[in-house]
Design goal:
Layout (H helix, E strand, L loop, with lengths): L13 H42 L80 E3 L6 H7 L6 E3 L2 E3 L11 H11 L10 E5 L5 H7 L4 E6 L7 H7 L4 E3 L14 E7 L11 H9 E10 L5 H4 L7 H17 L2 E7 L2 E6 L74 H21 L10 E4 L6 H5 L6 E7 L6 H6 L3 E5 L12 E7 L1 H5 L5 H11 E12 H13 L2 E7 L7 E8 L11
Parallel strand pairs: 4-5, 4-7, 5-6, 7-8, 11-12, 11-14, 12-13, 14-15
Antiparallel strand pairs: 1-3, 2-3, 8-10, 9-10, 15-17, 16-17
Protein name: Methyltransferase
Pfam families: Methyltransf_29
Keywords: Glycoprotein, Membrane, Methyltransferase, Signal-anchor, Transferase, Transmembrane, Transmembrane helix
């Protein structure tokens, strides 16, 4: 072979070419080993630095506290004094009338959110304290004349001077709620011995039924929709009785399955037999196995009552038979009946539900793809949620009686990731210490100044359990994005609800005396704007009410800045252990009146 210049090319033999290549390979390997050793040693140094940073104290941390620009929030106009953002009558016309869906939760988009302070009504006063508040409230705090004119003949309430008085009457118990509940207890002896602890009242009126049960050791969630005239839930909370805005329409109520020991409807006008019994299916879902459903009003006692119901005896008889058929198909049995009250009991075991697998069965059994506890904007399905066969100690006849059940580890804690008997006991002990510390920081806690309390992000209801002997009640809120611990709360004999704090809560303004949160912003600030959460707290907190904010030190400056802009007074305090990474803010909302209102 020749090069292109014509000179002969050299051809070295294969052995002479392999030697330098082998030497180069050895050199490269050695160099790689040397460089790799240097890199690894440097990586080890970096890892050590990271560990040192993790275990360093917050004072040594390079992360500065969150800072935001201070601002003074303006007052909302006076026509927003009863503003409920997600159940706002101003927005009802945007939604359909079918099954009253317009009364369900429909929150405004972000660009329509209010950044103003909701004013109290003209003449607002600090609420009457418990237990007097059960029987009376200031008229100017809930100035609704319509309900007074429409319901005074039924003894719901009556106006006397500057107060509303609550005689304890109702549509089905105009002679008084006490005698009505006495008859109910005769039909359901379990109401007397601590077996029944939690209840829900659908279509609650002014919550006289729930108010009476408090003295009998039964804690009731009174449920009613937002309306333009009656303000049932607002009256209930003004009286110091647990209540929440809600309606049985097209979506599940914000409670887990197998939660309540008893459900009640006193002429609540819910069409139980319509739409394939879909509303009864929801009652079945939220009732504990062995729990009771109590109905008074149409079509119960139709033989004697039909003339006053604007109907015929034949129509009412047909409605009653259809109701009984539906309840039987859902594994309810008629427990007892007398006068205007009928009581059905949900099956305690699952043997009855085998019939739901038949091809022509209605309603059918829900398939396994439907999560029983999914209850935040979850649409109804026309099927029966069959209780898990693993629930054995949570049925009515097996669950410990009140008050023992408060501190007994619920079996459903095992459904929570990381849940165990030891974790439950630790949480219980921790909150006893914390509550004792809170009372040192806020002496009003435990006095008649604080009645309506919300734990905004509870786990197992530990705070509520620690203050159980105080003259207050606690609404335990579990985030719809957090671990599902609400069944544990209910199994303890406490009440609560699911909620997403990126949205407004289902209540009227000025309905809680104390709001408590523990690391809520640490958990949710990546989703929810701190400003809007605090503005929502201001909306639902009563004037002169308190907030206990337990948070990472990182958020404290920002929270204090926003609170100042809402006219709150706050002071920082150490936790019970005095750690630097976590602090407590004790805040109080100022009582102020709208500058646009005339003086009286």
């Amino acid at each position: 072979m020749k090069h292109k210049d014509g000179k002969p090319g050299s051809h070295p033999d294969k052995n002479s070419r392999a030697f330098p290549m082998a030497m180069m390979f050895v050199v490269l390997c050695g160099l790689s080993f040397y460089l790799g050793g240097i890199f690894c040693s440097e990586r080890d140094k970096i890892e050590v630095k990271d560990v040192a940073k993790v275990v360093s104290s917050p004072k040594e941390s390079s992360v500065a506290p969150l800072q935001i620009k201070s601002t003074a929030f303006p007052e909302c106009s006076s026509d927003y004094q009863d503003y409920t953002p997600c159940t706002d009558p101003r927005r009802w016309k945007k939604y359909g009338n079918h099954r009253l869906t317009f009364m369900e939760r429909h929150c405004p988009p972000v660009f329509e959110r209010k950044e103003c302070l909701v004013p109290p009504p003209e003449g607002y006063k600090p609420p009457i304290t418990w237990p007097k508040s059960r029987d009376q409230c200031w008229y100017r705090n809930v100035p609704y004349d319509w309900i007074n004119k429409q319901k005074s003949n039924q003894n719901w309430l009556r106006k006397e001077g500057d107060k509303f008085l609550f005689p304890g009457g109702g549509t089905m118990f105009p002679r008084g709620v006490g005698a009505y509940v006495d008859l109910m207890q005769d039909l359901i002896p379990e109401m007397k011995d601590g077996t029944i602890r939690t209840a829900i009242d659908t279509g609650c009126g002014v919550a006289s039924w729930g108010g009476d049960l408090l003295d009998r050791g039964i804690l009731t969630v009174s449920l009613a929709p937002r309306d333009n005239h009656e303000a049932q839930v607002q009256f209930a909370l003004e009286r110091g009785i647990p209540a929440i805005l809600g309606i049985i329409s097209t979506q599940r109520l914000p409670f887990p399955s197998n939660a309540f020991d008893m459900a009640h409807c006193s002429r609540c006008l819910i069409p139980w037999t319509e739409f394939g019994g879909i509303y009864l299916l929801e009652v079945h879902r939220i009732l504990r196995p062995g729990g009771f459903w109590v109905l008074s009003g149409p079509p119960v006692n139709y033989e004697n009552r039909w003339r006053g119901w604007n109907t015929t005896v034949e129509e009412q008889k047909s409605d009653y038979e259809k109701l009984q058929e539906l309840l039987t198909s859902m594994c309810f049995k008629l427990y007892d009946k007398k006068d205007d009250i009928a009581v059905w009991q949900k099956a305690s075991d699952n043997s009855c539900y085998s019939k739901l697998t038949y091809p022509d069965a209605y309603p059918p059994k829900c398939d396994d793809s439907l999560e029983p506890d999914s209850a935040w904007y979850t649409p109804f399905r026309p099927c029966v949620v069959v209780p898990s066969p693993r629930i054995k100690k949570s049925v009515m006849e097996s669950i410990p009686k009140w008050p023992q059940r408060l501190h007994v580890t619920p079996e459903r804690i095992l459904d929570v990731h990381g849940g165990s008997a030891s974790a439950f006991k630790h949480d219980d002990s921790k909150w006893k210490i914390r509550a004792k510390h809170y009372k040192k920081l806020l002496p009003a806690l435990g006095s008649d100044k604080i009645r309506n309390v919300m734990d905004m992000n509870t786990v197992y209801g530990g705070f509520a359990a620690a203050v159980i002997d105080d003259p207050l009640w606690v609404m335990n809120v579990v985030s719809s994005y957090a671990a599902n611990t609400l069944p544990v709360v209910f199994d303890r004999g406490l009440i609560g609800t699911f909620h997403d704090w990126c949205e407004a809560f289902s209540t009227y303004p000025r309905t809680y005396d104390l709001l408590h949160l523990d690391g809520l912003f640490t958990a949710e600030s990546h989703r929810c704007d701190i400003k809007y959460v605090l503005l929502e707290m201001d909306r639902i907190l009563r004037p002169a009410g308190y907030a206990i904010i337990r948070e990472s030190s990182y958020f404290m400056d920002a929270i204090s800045t926003i609170a100042k802009g809402m006219r709150w007074s706050c002071r920082g305090e150490d936790t019970e252990y005095g750690v630097e990474k976590e602090k407590i803010l004790i805040c109080q909302k100022k009582l102020w009146h709208s500058s646009t209102q005339s003086s009286r």
